[in-house]
């Protein structure tokens, strides 16, 4: 008899983003605008700290949740950035292997088998996969009709007696949109009325171009007892390869989260934690301003191509609609690679059809070349008569 593995894994697919990046890499000369990977390097003063720590022998087991000075610095930063003091208390900080682990821990903490998680969609596929992995049930809430916002009616239509949590990502991957006050309030009403946890994926929180931006935890401190906040060093400091992030929650939730973290990974490496501390002191505003310039360039180019989009107000993604061009998003992206040498990610990988995700995290020269190729491809499709009128 064949041995049977965990049946939940049969429901999971490997990341479609990675698959398209691999196709781009195999295509000679292709310009890839697929990955949420900053074109910059980690700042040198941050990198230097690792060599120093290795030299002084910081190579043994560190405390499970991270060194106290790093946890305190994360809590201080998050308080300064609006997270209520009872959530952003150093006791409630766990230093994790990226936001990926933080989200895995958060979902493990709140879900029992069969519990439902509402995921405003389009969404980063991690939430659906992790929910499935811990035997929860992902429930997509399509935000496209509401301009990628969450309406109370649409949310209520998805809440059932099994709903346990909602995952928020603002600024959003893949749309770059930030949730407005009405969306945050709609979620707060539902969370209060139906006793839901709110898992806030705030990895793009410091890459925001809109002055109106508010974090859910800051706007609704009265719901602190049910909020878990995931953060990351990956994006603002170009530290994707370091695998460093954090989870914040009130002490009673953090105590449960600590168990999951301890049994999954024990801790993050000892000798990256001074570097993480140094990163927190590093001013990300120049990086953000440079992304803002690339955002402006991207939006202007997409407008010239006549591809409708909701202007991204954070992160480094644009999510234009290609539905008028007569191709499904996968076919659009495959042909863009093969015929125009530019790689994007199909919207269907984020749970919606008719859109493509373009990452403008790469350097400006690559971005300009990629946009020029995309313009050529869109023009060729139109000339082919593919556009539906
Ligand atoms: C919305 C979102 N959440 C979480 C992550 C994972 O971040 P990390 O590198 O910290 O694991 C990403 C990475 O692309 C992301 O876009």
TrEMBL record:
Residues folding into a coiled coil are none
The superkingdom listed in its UniProt entry is Bacteria
Top EC class for this record: transferase
Q: What CDD domains does the entry give?
A: AAT_like (cd00609)
Parts of the chain that traverse the membrane: none
Q: Which GO terms describe its molecular function?
A: transaminase activity
**Listed InterPro entries:** Aminotransferase_I/II_large (IPR004839), AspAT/PAT-like (IPR050596), NHTrfase_class1_PyrdxlP-BS (IPR004838), PyrdxlP-dep_Trfase (IPR015424), PyrdxlP-dep_Trfase_major (IPR015421), PyrdxlP-dep_Trfase_small (IPR015422)
- Cofactor section: pyridoxal 5'-phosphate
Q: Which Pfam families match?
A: Aminotran_1_2
Q: Enumerate the spans annotated as Aminotransferase class I/classII large domain.
A: 30-374
Per the UniProt entry, the Enzyme Commission number(s) are: 2.6.1.-
**Keywords assigned by UniProt?**
Aminotransferase, Pyridoxal phosphate, Transferase
Please indicate if the UniProt record lists Transferase as a keyword.
Answer: yes
Annotated PANTHER family: ASPARTATE AMINOTRANSFERASE, ASPARTATE AMINOTRANSFERASE-RELATED
Q: Which family does it belong to?
A: Belongs to the class-I pyridoxal-phosphate-dependent aminotransferase family.
Report the protein name in the record.
Aminotransferase
